[in-house]
Amino acid sequence: MKKPYFYIIGLGPTPKHVSYQAIEILSEKCDSVFYEEYTSIPSEGDLSYIEEMIKKKATKLNRRDLEDLSGEIIIRSLREGRNTCLVTWGDPLIATTHISIITRVVHEEFKYRYIPGINSVSVALAASGLMIYRIGKIATITYPREGVISEYPYLVLRENLSRNLHTIFLLDIDSEKNIYMNAREAIKILLDLEKRFGEGIFSSKSLVLVVNIANNIMICGGEANYVLENPPNNYPQILVVPAKLYFTEEEYLRELGLLNNRCIYI
Predict the structure, then answer these.
(1) At what angle do helices 152-162 and 183-197 cross, to 10 degrees?
(2) Long-range pairs for 250-255: beta carbons < 8 A, 24 or more residues apart
(3) What are the two backbone dihedrals, phi and then psi, of residue 235, each rounded to the nearest 5 degrees?
(4) Measured by CB atoms within 10 angstroms of the end CB, which terminus of the chain is less buried, N or C?
(5) Where in the chain is the domain with CATH 3.40.1010.10?
(6) Assigned fold of 5-115
(7) pLDDT tens digits, 164-200
(8) Helix or strand or coil: residue 7?
(9) CATH class of 120-265
C-alpha cells in the first residue's frame, strides 16, 4: 500500500501572501486539511478565502490537539491512508512548535513535505532596513504569569546590545484565549524590567521599531515613548530594538522618517 504524505504548509501573514505551491498542494494533494491559529493569526482576512480557492473545508485544531495529544488526529488520518495537511499562518517551522508532530510522522514512516510560508520575522527585518548579519537572539515578551514577569527578554536584550546586535521581540499571542499583546504593553514590560535591573539599557528614549505585516506593511519608528503614547492597533505586531545603527541602516530609517516618531505603510 502506498504511504500517504503529511504536508505542513505555511500560508504567510495574510491569505493574499499564500504561495502558488501551497494552493496547488492543498487543491490537488490533500485528502484531509487541518489548521491552527493559536501560534499565529492573519493580519487581514481569514481562512475562508483559502477554502474558497481550494474548494475544500479545513478542520480547526487547538493546542490540546497538536501538543497535549501529540497530533493524534493527524496520525490517525495518515494511518487511514489519507494525504493529510496542516496549515498555519506565517511559516509553520519558524519556531519549533510543530517539530514534534513531524518527528512522530517520520518515526511512523509516513512521507513528509514542508511548504514554507512568508514569515513575519524575516519581513520585519527586511522592512526595517536592518542587516540580517546584525540580528542577535530573538525572544518573546509574554504577559506576567501569576503576577511574575519573565526576565528573559531583558537578559536577551542585554546580551544582544553588549554585542552591538539588534533584538527582535515576538509578542505574546494566544487566539484561543483572545490574547494579543501590542508593542505598547511590551515596552511597558521592558521598562518595568529596566527598573528592576537598573542597567540603563532601555528607556522611554530608546529607539524602537514596530512592524505589522499585512497587505500593506506598517512600520512605526521613534522613541519608545512615542509608541507608548500612540500605540498601533494592527495585530499581530513585532517589536524591534536596534543596537547602534550601521550608516546604511541609519540612512534608510532617516529617509523614511522612522527615527522621528512616525508610522508609515510600505
Answers:
(1) 80
(2) 252/129, 253/128, 253/129, 253/209, 253/221
(3) -125, 155
(4) N
(5) 5-115
(6) Cobalt-precorrin-4 Transmethylase; domain 1 (3.40.1010)
(7) 999 999 999 877 777 889 999 999 999 999 999 999 9
(8) strand
(9) alpha beta
